[in-house]
Design a protein that fits this description.
The chain has 314 residues and is of the alpha/beta class. It has eleven helices and eleven strands. Helix 1 packs across helix 4.
């Protein structure tokens, strides 16, 4: 019978690659350095090939070692998927779920839906990672994240996506600005104003420009910010006009400012909020259930906000 590597050996090999040093890798894996070294040597003997060059300061992987590491990580991901699929079969949305979310969604949507998710699925252990789209897509591909909450369309590679709801863009400017008197703001009017945008790398920038049919960077005067809160401060300071997602406005991002938010006279006028996960995952049913739950909670929240707005206008 052909000897095969064990998952434990592959886990230790992965730890060694991440740490680059036997001592640090052993500490990360909660084992002794001699145990780690013996496991790697046994793996090399099993495969009949040297995997690492052992230097005094840092471990260097051989070409064969790099290939074994790449394939071994796939096997570890598949093993994680197997365990997760079995857990999902026992109870929906249970166990560890690593959710990546972009910063223009997370702070404005999650505080409303997370308490309901915890009540509905008490066995779910949710770990949140907030970062820009490209970075969380990369982490999805490496297996560091299980599912993403982001804005579509995006360059998600081979990942499957699920649309949840539309998030309308609102033109935002000081209340004394001439555009604040418009019931709906034509995007062409914004092209004549100093436009405040998020920096490159934030998908909200490209989605907002796409809705307005603006070319980037041939826009005229543009001022860039690192976050939506900074955009709001800049607009409130009279530096220009900006585009904000309704998620952020409904969550109160304009509270305490002298800003007005108006719908766009554009079609389409929104971005799509959705989920993305690795194609072929054994947890697809879980992720679809998560998507349906988030979409339903958002519909309830939106309906409540509309009723509140109607009461205040009466």
């Amino acid at each position: 019978m052909i000897r095969q590597p064990t998952l434990r050996q592959l886990h230790y090999l992965d730890a060694l690659a991440r740490a680059g040093h036997f001592g640090r890798a052993a500490a990360a894996a909660n084992i002794t350095q001699s145990t780690l070294s013996a496991a790697i040597k046994d793996l090399e003997e099993t495969l009949g090939v040297a995997l690492v060059d052992r230097g005094k300061r840092r471990v260097v992987f051989t070409p064969a070692g790099q290939e074994v590491l790449k394939r071994g990580r796939r096997l570890l991901e598949d093993a994680d998927e197997l365990v997760a699929a079995a857990a999902a079969a026992r109870a929906p949305l249970s166990g560890l779920l690593r959710l990546g979310v972009i910063p223009t969604i997370g702070p404005f949507l999650l505080p409303k839906v997370l308490p309901r998710l915890r009540r509905a699925f008490p066995k779910l252990k949710l770990v949140l990672v907030e970062d820009q789209t490209a970075r969380i897509v990369d982490q999805l591909g490496t297996g560091a994240l299980d599912v993403l909450l982001l804005a579509l369309p995006c360059d998600c590679g081979t990942a499957e996506t699920m649309e949840l709801f539309e998030d309308e863009f609102l033109a935002t400017m000081p209340k004394a600005h001439a555009l604040a008197s418009e019931a709906e703001v034509p995007p062409a009017y914004l092209a004549e104003e100093p436009l405040l945008l998020l920096q490159e790398g934030h998908c909200l920038r490209s989605h907002a420009l796409s809705v307005c049919n603006f070319a980037d960077p041939a826009l005229g005067p543009v001022v860039e910010a690192t976050s939506l809160h900074t955009l709001v401060q800049m607009a409130d300071g009279g530096l220009g006009v900006t585009l904000l997602p309704r998620l952020a406005v409904d969550a109160g991002i304009l509270r305490g400012t002298n800003l007005a938010a108006r719908p766009l006279d554009a079609d389409p006028r929104s971005r799509t909020i959705g989920l993305a996960w690795r194609r072929g995952t054994g947890r697809r049913n879980d992720f679809e259930l998560l998507g349906r739950t988030v979409a339903e909670l958002q519909r309830e929240k939106s309906g409540s906000a509309i009723r509140k707005s109607q009461r205040s206008s009466q």
